[in-house]
Write a structure and sequence with these properties.
Two copies of one chain form a homodimer. Helix content of chain A is 43%, strand content 13%. Chain A is of the alpha/beta class and 363 residues long. Chain A is elongated. At the A-B interface, helix 4, helix 5, strand 2, helix 6 and helix 11 of A face helix 4, helix 5, strand 2, helix 6 and helix 11 of B. The first copy, chain A, binds a DNA duplex (16 and 16 nucleotides) through helix 2 and helix 4. Chains A, B: This is LacI family transcriptional regulator.
DNA sequence: CTGAAAGCGCTTACAG
DNA sequence: CTGAAAGCGCTTACAG
């Protein structure tokens, strides 16, 4: 609401025009036009890949562009287009590994495109959350935004973006929107894979630690898990399901509660690796050996899965790959579709078996 | 070298001018000028906090600005200023937690300033590294850049930035440049703290696992450690120092090597938490109990320090705080100096004692 | 203290 | 297929 402080204009001391050595000014569209003997408008057409340029003319202009290493000024282009060449990543996610992997994936998909990535962490619970998003998108005239969970699951954000006409991609565990706005992670499949693995090991006393209700993935992972259990005739009691917060600490607390019960579960599926690591900690405190006394399975396959002892059996999610696909979808729908035809991209999770899971103890 | 593909112009289908509901166009400087009965130049003076505006005029204009929620278009302003309001973070750092904390800190320091953060991970070993940095900075006309380690330690980058006249802040463990370009982390102090803690526990057979030589922090942490040891009459032999790569896996490998020796070290100081976690893993494989048989001390105090067993005694570094200071220094030198006077910001590391360190075993 | 003119480097209409 | 004019929303010189 209150107007933000504005940046001061750049100070002009210490910086003689053009710097010390790299003083040769960069070419502009006017330079290229003059050099190629055409109007700037025709150069503009070449830049924007307009079909209405004679091949010969195009080639001449492209040669001059290449010779001078000309690249159009994104700021000027943006001003004229009324839209910047900036892509925003708006997120509220507690996991650094997820955030970094997602950023890397988006950058993978943007490489060589001339776009840049502007990061915008936020707090979905803040009373100014929506206003903040709106200000960010409108003021920067973002080309588009990518929304990972749980921001992706906020219908108010999607509605806002539609209203102000900003392109967006939602990354979520399930199809929440029109296909052109979605990259789907299919967390449900991952939950099912975890269930089958645990069942294959002979476990019957099984517990599930859910993520927070505010994340759709919590429900999907649980849903897939329960469904696959049901296929083999096993039903989880309400008491077999307890809720964590996707954090290590909540994993410890949930583990403490579960492992104090009689009878004790012989296998615990945690909604993510952080919580699974917490369960490992809890088992150690209880004097339990993993996997001899207890099987623990996580979800995500982030680094922590390999840093704990024993290394976690977990469900791998291709976060970076998903990011790449999101960026490509946002930037260039046509090219993406062609690519998908010949190289169908996978966003499905896969089971990774390590040492935290083993046969059910013989009673 | 080869010109990048250019973004396509925004497609005009599906998006009727002005969106669905938020269709009222945002006010421009012309609107404000007309409404306030002044020229746009005078509005511009108010925006840029020029002192050459009569108080009465200023107040009238500010009232109109507030009433209309006007905010100048950063793209247009940037085009006229020949400089954007974008701040770049250029980094090549393997630790997601560090990257995310640094980003959060930069954002803390930028909040309400009207600047935005553009992230630019890179590969310092790439043959096109310097050219990439140059292209990024020049094409986006960045207002300034922040360089965390190890990019901050690359003198070629600093030289380049000076040449093209781009403001920059280097974050490093030691003063590498003029004070106005530096935020210093004083890793040396942290190394000394680790040494004193280990000595206080009675250890004499001590080993050090260094980070990669390409990180200045590796040398500083080691230097502080050795100096504090020397103060108490202890000198590390060359064989007591081995080199890792700041990764979990390298920590395991170095731990394996160290723990196979006779006599075995009773305390290991690892250059960061990842490697310390690796040593823990290695100790477990060797059947050693921590801290009864072996003391392990890390550096950084990232989340992994608390997720492993036993939780790591480590040296806490205020990464996010350092990021905040870097952004503030870049954006507004004057305000920063005043703030530092009354609230001297600390960037020094501090010892955090947890359960991976204990008295030297009685022989 | 204030303003009219020109310009930043592009693109959008509009002609031809 | 190509171009001259006007404009995107600001700021920089330059006057007064």
């Amino acid at each position: 609401m209150n107007s933000p402080k504005l940046p001061s204009p750049p100070s002009s001391d210490h910086e003689p025009e053009g710097g010390l050595e790299g003083g040769r000014k960069r070419a502009t569209i006017n330079d290229i036009a003059r050099l190629a003997g055409v109007s700037k408008k025709t150069v503009s057409r070449v830049i924007n890949q307009s079909p209405f340029v004679r091949d010969e003319t195009r080639e001449r202009i492209e040669a001059v562009i290449a010779e001078w290493g000309y690249a159009p000024d994104p700021q000027a282009r943006g001003l004229a287009f009324r839209r910047s060449f900036l892509i925003g990543m708006i997120y509220d996610n507690p996991n650094p590994q997820y955030v970094v992997n997602m950023q890397l994936g988006l950058l993978d998909g943007m490489r060589g495109s001339g776009f840049e990535l502007v990061v915008h962490p936020c707090n979905r619970a803040s009373p100014t959350f929506l206003a903040d998003v709106r200000t960010f998108v409108e003021r920067q005239k973002l080309y588009g935004v990518v929304l990972p969970p749980s921001v992706s699951e906020d219908e108010r954000v999607a509605k806002l973006l539609n209203e102000i006409g900003c392109a967006y991609i939602r990354i979520a565990s399930v199809e929440l929107d029109k296909p052109e706005h979605m990259i789907v992670g299919h967390d449900r499949m991952g939950g099912a894979q975890a269930a089958r693995h645990i069942l294959d090991l002979g476990h019957r006393r099984i517990a599930f630690i859910s993520g927070p209700a505010t994340f759709r993935s919590s429900h999907e992972r649980r849903g897939g898990f329960e469904a696959a259990l049901a296929e083999r005739g096993l039903t989880l009691q309400p008491s077999d399901i307890i809720q964590g917060a996707y954090t290590f600490e909540s994993g410890v607390a949930c583990g403490d509660e579960l492992l104090a019960r009689t009878p004790r579960p012989t296998a615990i599926f945690a909604g993510n690796d952080e919580m699974a690591a917490g369960v490992l900690q809890s088992a150690r405190k209880a004097g339990l050996s993993v996997p001899a006394d207890l099987t623990v399975v996580g979800f995500d396959d982030f680094q922590i899965a390999q840093a704990v002892w024993p290394p976690l059996t977990t469900i791998h999610t291709p976060t970076r790959e998903i990011g790449r696909m999101a960026a490509e979808k946002l930037i260039d729908a046509e090219r993406r579709e062609r690519r998908e035809e010949r190289d169908p991209a996978r966003t499905e999770p896969t089971l990774v078996v390590r040492q935290s899971s083993g046969p059910a103890p013989v009673v």
